[in-house]
Amino acid sequence: MIVGIDGNEANIESRVGVNQYCFSLLWGIYKLQGEWKNTHRFIVYLKNSPLSDLPKPTKYFEYKVIPGGGAWIVRKLTPNLFRKPKPDIFFSPSHYVPLLAPMPRVCSIMDLGYLKFSGQFKKYDFWQLKLWSAYSIFVSKAVIAISTSTKDDILRHYPFASKKVFVTHLAYDKEVFNTGISSEDVRRVKKSYAIVDDYILYLSTLKPSKNVEGLIEAFGQLKSKNKIQNTKLVIAGKKGWFYESIFEKVKTLGLGKDVIFTDFVPEEDKAPLIRGAKVFVLPSFWEGFGLDVLYAMACGVPVVVSDVGSLPEVAGDAGILVNPYKPTSIAAGIAKVLSMSDLEYNKLVEKGLRQAEKFSWEGTVRRTIEILEKVKNGRI
Predict the structure, then answer these.
(1) Which of 196, 304, 339, 363 is most buried when burial is the number of CB atoms within 10 A of its CB?
(2) The pLDDT of residue 234
(3) Which of 356, 252, 364, 344 is nearest to 300 (CA)?
């Protein structure tokens, strides 16, 4: 079976969300290719040459670079799928499958939050997501959802897809995110971001769906009631869209000295930054999965997360669940963790470590290939 894969989501330097998902899938396939060398071959299609940290090409894992700019999927990728060697199946680890293809297609859906919160997107982005995602779900022989929450959303909006949606959870690199991160590495990262005190950590893109303003307001409440002392709020992540009001919120509440913005955090700094935090908070209005929650639990840091979307699914009984629409609820969740005794805190950490162990990239890759095989053999 020749599997064609759109690898462009992985071929960028600042990876978040779907980029990390695609990157990890490619590496997972690469590591397991020996098991399939007599049966499977993988062709990864890119618009630019592969970055140095992507897997190196082999006899069974190769890249096909098709240079091109705008509308690349339509203008460049689609015509190439009709040329030899033609893949037997084409996999898009994103919402965007080729509009035409001579082979079965499979797509991955991160979430459908844009349908509920359309005002949080630029108009062009919203309509592209809405129309192309619907088309991808319609024409794909199988649809991969990254959480049960996302699957439920897909079936609610597109009931015709009930027999072809499958869940493959995301995962984490256990060699990177763990409790064995050295204190020297933590100090290095804290110094580089000018963090001196204890800190509450938010790590994700700065955009409306993440509810960073709600977190800032909750932090302000804790500060005003003197419930936390010598504790900073670290907001780590690259700027997404409609982020300006986040910085305005800090100014309005007079929290300039207590909130630290790091901007984008490179991969080598993520684990030490998480490990050094007292608590990790992700108060999103929705999440398709919430990878950074998994990273935090794996690093031995308690998590406070929204009680909506996939976050309860990811955090399990290890998460302190809060109402993202109520800053008082977010504040109460943070205060609950910070006021715990050492024994209570460590018990919550242990719950998080056990929860994180349930997720593995190898399992995700194997399940993904199994789905592709079933499509190829007409069993889906």
Answers:
(1) 304
(2) 98
(3) 356
Q: Report the C-alpha gap between 224 and 65 in whole angstroms.
A: 55
Q: What span, in angstroms and rounded, lies between the C-alpha atoms of 139 and 77?
A: 17
Mean pLDDT split into 10-residue runs, the chain, 380 residues: 97 91 97 90 97 96 92 95 94 96 97 85 88 97 97 97 97 96 97 95 94 97 88 94 92 95 93 98 95 97 96 97 98 97 98 97 97 94
Distance between CA atoms of residues 311 and 316, nearest Å = 8
Distance, CA of 174 to CA of 294 (rounded, Å)? 11
Residue 206 DSSP label: B
177 and 269 Cβ atoms separated by less than 8 Å: no
pLDDT at site 320? 98
The pLDDT, as a whole number, for residue 240 is 85
Nearest-10 crossing angle of helices 212-224, 327-338 = 60
Residue 160 makes CB contacts below 8 A (sequence gap 6+) with 138
Q: What angle do CA 228, 233, 237 make, to 5 degrees?
A: 165
Q: With contact defined as beta carbons under 8 Å apart, do 33 and 43 qualify?
A: no
Distant-in-sequence, close-in-space partners of 306: CB < 8 Å, separation ≥ 6 = 211, 282, 283, 284, 285, 287, 321, 322, 323, 324
CA atoms of 26 and 11, how far apart (whole Å): 10
Please report the pLDDT score of residue 287 as a whole number: 92
Structure tokens at 199: 């800190």
- The SS3 assignment for 198 reads strand
CA dist 173 and 163 (Å) reads 31
**Distance (Å, whole) CA 21 – CA 274:** 19
Contact 283, 203 (CB under 8 A): no
Q: How many CB atoms are closer than 10 A to CB 350?
A: 12
In whole angstroms, give the CA distance from residue 152 to residue 167: 10
Helix (H) or strand (E) holding 25: helix 18-32
Give the single-character DSSP code of 82: T
